[in-house]
Specification:
1% strand, 20 helices, 2 strands, Growth Hormone, Chain: A, 432 residues, single chain, mainly alpha, two-stranded antiparallel sheet
Length: 432
């Protein structure tokens, strides 16, 4: 990867119109509504309404997840290569709406399995494509600020859909949550098509800039694994998601079993608390050039073992809902940081979205494999033991980040940020 000096601009994004930025804001908000309309609600719906047990749910999520995430890297390569990024968003939105209706209408093993595999594939489409569109619109000079803004609207959307789902699920039954999705798919289509295709620089969107862009193409994807930040981030992401992925599902199950008749409401409460915490995290990422990407990454990784231990030690439903604040600090902050830190790690490669897909596959394997592991632990030893073991894995991931992960986000001085001045910083050490 080229080690040339890079420029970071912390002023306004004058080249992007206000209307285009608002369209991107609405797109983030509405896609959050689509994803939030499924997510943990499927888990709770299958447990409390259909009557599946925790081990069966965990096994299904693991198998379907592993099948789906095998395609993350190819989907990332597709996002790098295609100029039809808006079409990926629109097609995925309608597919997700259809899948939600299928689960609610025919919740058989075959239908849920096919839907889960498809949702795993769509998980590799939405966030990376939005990040690619963002980079293509704003370039490396505006990526930190805009990714934070994207995340803020995404989290606000999650809070909105959680509150709406609680209302609809309580008054009309859990199936009503899934029948809302076509409305949000239609609105997301309008938002996506409101961003002109000409507003996206597809070369920048794949991380192709500087000398690599002048040479006319990306370098071989295998070279990504020789980059120290990419390699460390990949291992850390696998451990992070192994520890974190089942926690909300297990907490939702535990809460639902303690609150008969209010399953959707308590699940929504847990989600709302976490999403409220992610909103200030998104604003922190907007200032990552001032704070430091590694410091923020360490904060995200530290929240996972702390959350697991608290869930293991405390059974009170109100406290458990409160502990979801740490999910916002952990998974919420990590999700916002990942595209920014990864961009610095593979900058100039032309493989940005494929790198995102590879990371998605690696962290997906970690997360999906932990569902059956955690579900089996619950059946064998109870929720407290499961949370304690997951917390220990999270601690290992935290130590790895502190000891081995270099800084990939260029730093600026506070005075320079306030004055909107450009600064020049050297990229981090990328040697393995």
């Amino acid at each position: 990867m080229d080690d040339a000096v890079i420029d970071i601009w912390v002023g306004n994004h004058g080249e992007v119109s206000v209307s285009h930025r608002l369209s991107l804001d609405w797109l983030n908000f509405l896609l959050a509504d689509l994803r939030g309309g499924l997510g943990p609600y499927v888990n709770v719906f299958l447990l409390t309404d259909v009557g599946w047990d925790q081990a069966t749910i965990g096994a299904l999520l693991t198998v379907s997840g592993l099948i789906g995430i095998a395609f993350h890297a190819p989907i990332g390569a597709l996002i790098d290569a295609t100029r039809a990024k808006r079409a990926l968003i629109v097609g995925g939105a309608w597919a997700l709406a259809t899948l939600g209706a299928a689960i609610a209408t025919v919740p058989t093993l075959a239908v849920v399995f096919v839907a889960d595999v498809s949702m795993a594939l769509l998980g590799a489409v939405f966030a990376p494509t939005i990040a690619a569109i963002t980079v293509g619109m704003f370039g490396p000079r505006g990526i930190a600020r805009q990714l934070g803004r994207n995340a803020a609207y995404d989290r606000i959307g999650n809070v909105f859909i959680a509150a709406l789902a609680a209302l609809i699920g309580t008054h009309f039954g859990q199936r009503g949550v899934f029948y809302m999705l076509p409305l949000f798919a239609g609105l997301a289509t309008i938002a996506a098509l409101s961003i002109p295709a000409s507003a996206i620089d597809h070369q920048l969107a794949r991380g192709l800039e500087g000398p690599s862009r002048d040479r006319g193409g990306p370098y071989a994807w295998r070279r990504l694994f020789a980059e120290r930040p990419f390699a460390v981030l990949a291992i850390g992401a696998a451990l992070f998601h192994f520890a974190n992925a089942p926690m909300l599902a297990l907490a939702s199950q535990k809460l639902a079993l303690e609150a008969k008749g209010f399953e959707t409401a308590v699940t929504s409460a847990a989600i709302i608390v976490a999403q409220l915490a992610t909103i200030p995290m998104a604003f922190l990422v907007m200032r990552a050039n001032l704070i430091g990407g590694k410091w923020l990454l360490t904060l995200a990784f530290a929240a996972v073992p702390l959350r697991g231990i608290l869930f293991a030690l405390v059974d009170d439903p109100y406290w458990m809902i409160g502990f979801q604040l740490l999910d916002g600090v952990g998974a919420g902050l990590f999700d916002v940081l990942l595209p920014l830190i990864l961009y610095g790690a593979v900058r100039g490669s032309g493989r940005y979205n494929m790198a995102r897909g590879i990371i998605g596959t690696i962290q997906g394997i970690g997360g999906a494999s932990s569902y059956v592991f955690a579900g089996s632990l619950v059946v064998w030893a109870g929720y407290s033991v499961a949370f304690a073991v997951l917390s220990a894995v999270g601690l290992v991931a935290l130590i790895l980040m502190v000891m081995a992960m270099p800084e990939t986000v260029p730093r600026i001085q506070a005075g320079q940020a306030a004055g909107g001045q450009g600064v020049r910083t050297f990229p981090p050490d990328r040697s393995c």
